[in-house]
Amino acid sequence: MGTQKVETLNGLKLLIVQHYKVTGEALDAFTVAVDGVGAGAGEMVLMAQGSSARQTPITEKRPVDAVIMAIVDKLEIES
User: How far out from the chain centre does Cα 74 lie?
Assistant: First the structure.
């Protein structure tokens, strides 16, 4: 939780999202994203970045560059 943030971000939860390869290997890359779906620690999520991050009802017209827009229940990879 941030104690100081831009007023338009008040009420929004910010999470640190670690990036992964499709194979499940963790990368040393992280993004701070607005949580739009109530995600929690350890959950795999789908994140949008850039102007697409400002297309959800809670992020519209806010200074946001990344938003969590889905929780992934299952990931299937076909070879």
Answer: 17
pTM: 0.86
pLDDT at site 1: 56
**pLDDT for the residue 78:** 81
Domain span including residue 37: 7-71
For residue 49, the domain's CATH number is 2.40.50.220
User: Is residue 2 over pLDDT 70?
Assistant: no
Cβ atoms of 45 and 31 within 8 Å: the answer is no
